[in-house]
Structures are given as structure tokens and as C-alpha cells.
Amino acid sequence: MARRRSRDILHRWEGNPILTGDDIPFPCNTVFNGAPVRIDDHYLLLLRVEGREGYSVLALARSDDGLHFEVEPEPVMTPAKEGPFHSAEMHGVEDPRVAFLEDWYYITYTAFGDCGPRIALARTKDFEDFERIAIISEPGNKDAVLFPRKIGGRYARLDRPYGHGIGNIWISWSKDLVHWGDSRVILGVRHGFWDNDRVGASAVPIETEDGWLELYHGVKMTSGGPIYRLGAAILDRDDPAKVLCRADIPILTPREEYERIGDIPNVCFASGAILEPSGEIKVYYGAADTSICVATARLETLIERCKLR
Amino acid sequence: MPRRSFKRDVVHRWEGNPAITIDDVPFPCLDIRDAGVAKVGDKYILLLTIEALDGQTAIYRAESEDGQRFEIAPSPAIEASHHGESGTYESIGVEDARITFLDGAYYVIYTANSPLGFRLAIAKTADFKTFERMGHISQPDTKHGVLFPERIDGRYARLDRPREGGAIWISYSNDLKYWGNMHFVMGPRGGFWDNSRVGPGTPPMRVDEGWLIIYYGIRETSAGPLFRLGAAVLDGEHPHEVIGRADVPILSPRERYERIGDLGNLVFTCGGVIEDGRLLLYYGGGDSCICVGTAPVAQLVERCFSGEER
User: pLDDT tens, B109-123?
Assistant: First the structure.
């Protein structure tokens, strides 16, 4: 029986999932939440691999088509064993996002330490040597994405702090990537909607003529646990604190078995997307916290959906 | 009734406590709590949190010649902004002012409260009559910010209490606007009286040994939280390093005005003044009054370096 998939704006690749724990060449529990980078004709995915002990490391996968990936034999980033990052990362490094900016690949990731999750910033030129820059938030904050260029002379990021138990998307600004301020909420939960409990930035914002396309995750809390879906919004190009429009419906919802079944069931959680020269967007998302999948859409389709009233 | 002995507490209560109650407020209100303090010339100035009848909080100035009998100004010193950008973050009110004298000005860090959570905000004043608001300086849910009265290695520094983890953290800034290099300072201690949550109380005070801080610690009980005050000394040059921490509280709720109130079993401080080697501590009791206590600074510091380590 043919399944109906037309309810989702993103189209799943039929080869999903593209990576599971079986593809990881070292012992692990699961792989999920990979950040994609396209360098010429090569695709890289910076992966979150959860070890059997329960803490996560970052591994690297390579591909020529963005669909079939091979994972390198050793992790590329593991929790710092000493120095200033040690206490902040002792329970793992998680959920990387990669932004290309001023000739560097900047990686925002979640450092899990004794006091909870914090946002950390590192950079690399070649995905072999990674330079940690700073931990850039207090605990209780995650899902940070760096804008891929300075805006009005300042660096900008989105993230997801918690206030009175509600997780909204905030923007913060910096002149040096280390000291951050001027924070404000930009995109919040919507009561009654599919994203009524928590929202957080997913993909590094993609600059378009209509503004910054931001793919975010929205959570609805049910008596059976959370449902993680994917949404889209457009932010003003010069002042991304301004949300120009936001899709009313999710662009991807857990429906397939690999999204329904896993360590955290009912999760579609994107952590990056690539805009191909053809105008196709490839969205990389973790499914059920247990595998990595790809889904695609035309850029204009996503933008139209955001604008639709 | 025989006089009770409170030798168990390092801080000595003023016999005239509570110094300020709701009856001293020149207008109807729900509650009064949490006073930051500065000594300006011969005058003692408090910035109090007053909860209005509708539940909104604002910060009011109170003045005193002797540090014990205060007069409260009838209109707020800092009130919630209800429009524009800052209105978004202050729709429930502003509270818990802590005052630091630095570079010739008084800086006030206070908490802005809205449905989006608690954030820290900072303002500057010369006379405690007009305040220049300098913006919000944290994301939610961070409270209890205290600014160091000196720059540390050229940078401004503050302590605060992000909600996650319930611990005291330090942050640095070159301009009081962009903050970074956050670092853990000290957290709850398993099995102790402060096993659940800790947060800064007074702004750090320079002593020979380093920085003396009075902090609050919470023990969560089946009947709710027990708020007590503790003391610690931070390294003078590297204030994220705790070099001494008292094993026992320096003040615990025992008097009726500390046991009974909107939040019973609570002593909580936002500031103190050091005079002739003695700390004059202003603390809230039961979240419903302001009290005065004193303790020799040397004794507080000594307490931080003695006692059992567990």
C-alpha cells in the first residue's frame, strides 16, 4: 500500500535513513543530528555519535553525492580531557551546527557539563584540526546557530535559552565571538499550534532574496511525550531580530518508522541544510535520535509556505 | 518569655528588627523584600523591592541617617518599562536591586521579570534619583547579578545565578554590554544546608584575603525551601576560584519575622555595608520585611577558612 507523504512539504529521500549506528566504524549507541557542509563537489557531515557510555562525541562522514556517506574511523572531537573546556564538556559534545564565515568553518555545539548544557564555539579550516574558541553561554542554553556573515558589523547567533520553563528562539550579538549581548527573543512558541511547547534554531540561516530562511524545530508536548517537528520562518536580512513570516504548519512531521521508533520516538530534528545551485534544499535531520535522514524541497516552495497567510 | 540565645548564628540581629515592614510603605502594597544598599556620604540608601497590589514589582528608594530607621520614597526609583523593547522583558516587574560603586558611579543590577523568564538588567546613577538604564545583560533564566566593585584584570566582572544547575557563575565584560568567559564559581553542596541551590547575595567585598561574598543557600525540604545565608571568600585575582567557604550558615531563619511571611523560613540578602571592620547586613525576612544584622568582617572571613571539610 502506498503511503501518503504529501502532507509534508519536505520530500523524504527513499534511501533513508542515510546513516545509522551500523555505519559507525567504532562502537556506539546511536548516531543522529548531523551538520552538513558542501565543499565544491564534496559533502561533509559532522555527526553526533552517542557512545555506549551515554556521552556524545563528534565524528565526520564524507560523501560525493550528499546521500551516500562514509564515516571516518575515529571521532574528530571528543570531550576535552583537561583545560578550561574539561568541566564544560565532561558529559559530552553534542548537536553541532556549521557556519562558513570569514574563511573558517565555525562550529557551534552543545557542551554538556556538570551544570547542564551550554553553547560552545570552535572552528576549523580542514575538519582535521579543531580549535576551541570559547563557551559562549551560561548553562541551560543550546541549539545555537551562527549567521554565516556579520550583520551591521556584528556577529549574530540564534539560540534557545529557557525562561519560566519555556524554550524560545533568541538572537544575541557580538563583536569578537567571545562576549555576547543585546539578546532578545525573536521567535516563540505558539499556543494551540504544533510548536506550542518549545522552539529552537535548527539550521544555520540561509540567506535568500526574501530574507534569512530559518529552519527550526518545534515541540508539542503530549501525555505520551514530546513530538519534534520541523518548521520554517523568514527573518529580515538586515535586522534578523525581525521575523517577516512563519509557516503555519510543519514542513516535516514524524511519520516513517525510522522517525517513530528509536531512543526518542517521534523526532524529526534538523541540524543543517544545503542550498544546491539547482535551487533544491537538502535538509539533514536526526530521526528518533537514532539515525540521520535527508529530505528535500525547492527553496521557493519553503519560502512560499512561509509567506502564505 | 525568656530571651532566646542566637549564638548559633554568626550574624547578630538588631534588636529593633524588622527595620522595615509593609506598615512603613507610604501606599498600599502586597509585600516588601530584598534591599540593595549603598552608603552615600552620611546617608544609608536602600533600593527595596515592593510588590504592588496587582502583583507587579518595582524598586523603591529608602533613606536613613542611622542605617536603622528608613523613610521610603512614595514613587519608584526603577519601575518596569511597559513599552518598546524593554517592556517585553519587564511586564511582570523589576526586582532585587544590588548596588555597586565603581569608577565614580553607582551601578544597579536588577532582575527583569516577564512571561519570557528572568533576565538581568543594569542601570547607573549618581544620586539615586535618576537612573540611566543600560540594557538587559543576560538571557533567561538568570537572576541575582552582582557587579564587582573593581575591574578584574581590566574587565568588568559579575556573579550571577543561571537557573540550570542552581550555582554561582562569573562573567566578564569590556563594556558592560557584551558578556563572556562565563565560569562556574560554586554550587550546592550535597548533604549540607545549601544542598539544593545557591546564588549571590551581596556584591563582592574586598578583604585582605580576597573577595568576601555573602550568598544564599537553599535546602529543599518536604515543606518547601529553607533559605539561609552563607559566606565564602573568592581569590582576589582569579575570583572564579573559591579559596574559603564557611561550612555552616552565617544566618538561619529563627525569629518570627524570618519564619513567617509570603515565603516563610527565609533570610535573603542583596547588600551590606562595611563600617569599621563590621558588616552591616541588610536582609529580607520571610520575603515580607527588611532586617538589619551585623557581624565582624574578620569573624566572617575566619569562618570561611575553618570548619570541617566533607
Answer: 999 999 999 999 999
Q: What angle do CA A215, A129, A28 make, to 5 degrees?
A: 65
Candidates A206, A200, A217; CA nearest to A269 is A217
Q: Which residue in B8, B16, B7 sits closest to B292, CA to CA?
A: B16
The parent domain of residue B70 ranges over 12-304
The whole-angstrom separation of Cα A57 and Cα A45 is 13
**Site from A178, A179, A182, A186 to mutate, B interface, most B CB atoms within 10 angstroms:** A179
Contacts of B162 in chain A (CB under 8 A): 115, 138-140
Is residue B4, in this structure, part of any structural domain at all?
A: no
Is the separation of the CB atoms in B91 and B119 below 8 Å? no
Task: Say how many C-beta atoms besides its own lie within 10 A of residue A52's C-beta.
Answer: 10
ipTM score assigned to the predicted complex: 0.87
CA–CA distance, A134 with B24 (Å, rounded to integer) = 49
Residue A264, CB-side half-sphere exposure with 13 Å CA sphere: 18
Name the residue among B88, B117, B182 with its Cβ closest to that of A164: B117
Task: With beta carbons under 8 A apart, name residues in chain B contacting A164.
Answer: 115-118, 140-141
Task: Provide the pLDDT confidence category of residue B87 given band limits of 50, 70 and 90.
Answer: confident
Q: How far is B170 from chain A (nearest CA, A)?
A: 9
Instruction: Give domain status of residue B7, yes or no.
Output: no
Residue B44 lies in a domain: yes
Pair A141, A117: CB distance under 8 Å = yes
- Which among A27, A26, A25, A65 is positioned nearest to A45, based on CA atoms? A65
Which residue in B227, B248, A99, B107 sits closest to A109, CA to CA?
A99
Residue among A25, A65, A71 at smallest CA distance from A47: A71
> Which chain B residues are closer than 8 Å to A173 by Cβ?
178
Domain count for chain B: 1
Do B165 and A134 count as a contact with CB atoms less than 8 A apart?
no
HEC per residue, A145-212: EECCCCECCEEEEEEEEEECCEECEEEEEECCCCCEEEEEEEECCCCCCCCCCEEEECCCCEEECCEE
Identity of the residue in A159, A168, A179 whose CB atom sits nearest the CB atom of B116? A168
Tens of pLDDT, residues B163-199: 999 999 999 999 999 999 999 999 999 999 999 999 9
Bridge partners, residue A172, by sequence = A157
CATH code for position B67: 2.115.10.20
